[in-house]
Specification:
The protein is 34% helix and 20% strand. The protein contains eleven helices and 17 strands. Strands 13-14-15-17-16 form a five-stranded mixed barrel. A four-stranded parallel beta sheet has the order 1-2-3-4, sandwiched between helices. A hairpin with a 5-residue loop joins strand 14 and strand 15. The relative contact order is 0.08.
Length: 397
């Protein structure tokens, strides 16, 4: 299990799944069970695994991913448990063989760690400080992916906007320009911290033909008071100014975001500020969460916890607001032409294909499964609650 510990629910789910394997281990005693990822980097978690999950064979942290083969061999050869969690997560390793599930899309990590210390987030404590890969290594990896038939890459980092600031190697806009030169058809990236969204990046997004017209720009709240309590280091006005610059440079860009509802001390007025921001920005969609305290973060000790019924009521109102916005945006796309990278056959209809448009919207249309992995022009004919329907036009690429 490769684990996440950003939210308490994810951690509890991972531990529940690990517990479930105990019975399978009894039937298949030679099966190896391994646990890795962010959860293992938490203080005391390795000791917990040792004490409470004796059927786990291998446990290691984020800084030791590249040693998985070594750990497997040690567990097989010795029959003993292998627990490796390093406090030093500062080294980046290149050249590790990677097997990817899909042959037309790929994720490429360009940096690890985070320097922002938002008060609700455990990531900086378990993943360490920001560490950027060398631009040459990233360009080389993407060039190999393009040559192997990959059409779309998604660049990954806790805050891609600050890529290169720790090394002085290059900047994120300059990296994007170099990646365009590899011939890759599509470039996406997540996640962008609003405080570090530069004019240079906006200009490069509008200029670069490979970058898809979509940005995930987490705002978390529309209240300046709550944003300060979250240590986000921008105001709602500053966020809206950057949204304006994005849309001025690229009118068709689609924006998505994250919201945390019921942060400690959030008043009804604070929540109304969030609703107001949603109406101003008009997001394509939003990921919404009720505040979940994480042990070890500052927010976990803040007073002013919101009553669960109030929190549920607020998130339901926010979801309803955003769903209405999404429906309106999708309905307005009727007649437009979207270029869809086909992911596969629709789960609902075997005669239809499904994929993502440049704007990262799901599109369903009738077509043959031989088109999977191709980019297909589709005329939008209608919309569901969160997907588009269309008809193929012209030839695939």
């Amino acid at each position: 299990f490769n684990t996440c510990c950003i939210r308490d629910n994810a951690e509890r789910k991972a531990l529940g799944n690990i517990t479930w394997l105990k019975e399978i281990k009894r039937v298949r005693p030679h099966m190896l069970i391994g646990v890795c990822g962010c959860m293992m980097q938490q203080q005391g978690m390795a000791e917990k695994i040792l004490a409470q999950y004796p059927f786990v064979d291998i446990a290691f942290g984020t800084g030791n991913f590249y040693r998985l083969g070594e750990f497997l061999l040690e567990a097989i050869d010795t029959g003993s448990r292998v627990i490796r969690v390093s406090d030093d997560d500062s080294t980046l390793f290149e050249g590790t063989p990677i097997s990817r599930m899909a042959d037309h899309k790929a994720y490429v990590a360009i940096m690890h760690g985070c320097n922002n210390y938002c008060t609700y987030c455990i990531v900086p404590y378990v993943r360490g400080r920001e560490r950027s890969r060398k631009a040459d290594d990233i360009v080389r990896e993407v060039a190999c992916l393009q040559q192997s038939g990959v059409k779309e890459i998604t660049l990954l980092g806790q805050n891609v906007n600050s890529f290169g600031t720790d090394t002085g190697d290059t900047t994120f806009p300059k990296l994007l320009r170099r990646l365009e030169g590899t011939g890759i058809s599509r470039i996406r990236f997540i996640t962008s911290h609003p405080k570090d969204l530069s004019d240079a990046l906006i200009e490069e997004m509008a200029r670069n033909k490979a970058i898809c017209p979509h940005m995930h720009l987490p705002v978390q709240s529309g209240s300046d008071r709550i944003l300060r309590a979250m240590n986000r280091r921008y105001t709602a006005e500053e966020y809206l100014r950057k949204v304006h610059l994005l849309r001025q440079a690229w009118p068709d860009i689609g924006l998505t975001t994250d919201f945390i509802v019921a942060f400690p001390g959030e008043t009804e007025a604070d929540f109304e500020d969030t609703l107001s921001l949603v109406r101003s920005v008009r997001y394509d969609s939003a990921f919404t969460f009720i505040f979940s305290p994480r042990a070890g973060t500052r927010a976990a000790t803040l007073p002013g916890r919101i009553d669960p019924d109030v929190a549920t009521g607020r998130i339901e109102r926010l979801i309803a607001e955003q769903e209405a916005m999404t429906a309106d945006i999708l309905a307005g796309m009727k007649g437009a032409c979207a270029h869809v990278l086909v992911d596969g056959v629709s789960r609902r209809r075997s005669t239809q294909l499904t994929g993502k448009s440049e704007r990262n919207l799901s599109v369903n249309f009738t077509g043959d499964k031989s088109l999977v992995g191709s980019i297909v022009p589709v005329i939008i004919e209608g919309a569901g609650s969160n997907t588009l329907r269309g008809k193929m036009k012209g030839d695939a690429t």
